Amino acid sequence: MHHKPFKSFFASRGQHDGSKADTAVAAAPRLARVVLGYEKRASDRVVTTIAEIPSELCETELAELRTKLGTGGTQDGPKLVLQGDQRSKLTAHYESRGVRVAGERG
C-alpha cells in the first residue's frame, strides 16, 4: 500500500487524486469568422460594421477594437459598429489572429 500525502489536499478541492481535475470547464467561445461591412450614414458619415461575433464576445471585442483603432463604436443588435472606414485595419487585425474575414475587406 502506497502512502499518498496529498490525498486529503485533492479531496478537499473536489479531486480524487492529483492526476486530473474532475471539474469540466466549458470551452470559451472562439472567434472563427467575421463579416465586415461598410455603410454611409446621414451627413456622409461612414461606419464599418462587424457581424457574426458571438454574443458572449461582443463587449470585450468592442472595447478592444475601440482602444486599438482609437475610434468610437457601439453595439447595434448582433453587429458592432465602428466610426470611419476601418476595413483594412480590421482585416489585418483579424487575419493576424487567425480569424477568417468575409464581406467588404477594404
Write a structural description:
The chain has 106 residues and is an alpha+beta fold. The chain has a domain at 31-103: Translation Initiation Factor Eif1 (2-Layer Sandwich). Helices cover 26% and strands 25% of the residues. The protein is built from three helices and five strands. Strands 3-4-2-1-5 form a five-stranded mixed β-sheet, with helices on one face. Strand 3 and strand 4 (79-83) form a beta hairpin. The longest helix is centred in the middle third of the chain and has 12 residues, at 58-69. It is elongated. It starts with 6 loop residues before the first helix and ends with a strand. The relative contact order is 0.19. The model has no long low-confidence stretch (mean pLDDT 85).
What's the β-strand tally?
Answer: 5
Largest beta sheet: strand ordering: 3-4-2-1-5
The SSE string, one letter per element, is HEEHEEHE
Helix content, binned percent: 25-40%
Q: How many distinct helices? A: 3
Question: What's the layout of helices and strands?
Answer:
Layout: H1 7-12, E1 33-40, E2 46-51, H2 58-69, E3 73-76, E4 79-83, H3 87-96, E5 100-103
Parallel strand pairs: 1-5
Antiparallel strand pairs: 1-2, 2-4, 3-4
In short:
The protein is an alpha+beta fold.
Protein traits:
single chain; 106 residues; alpha+beta; Translation Initiation Factor Eif1; 5-stranded mixed sheet; 5 strands; 26% helix
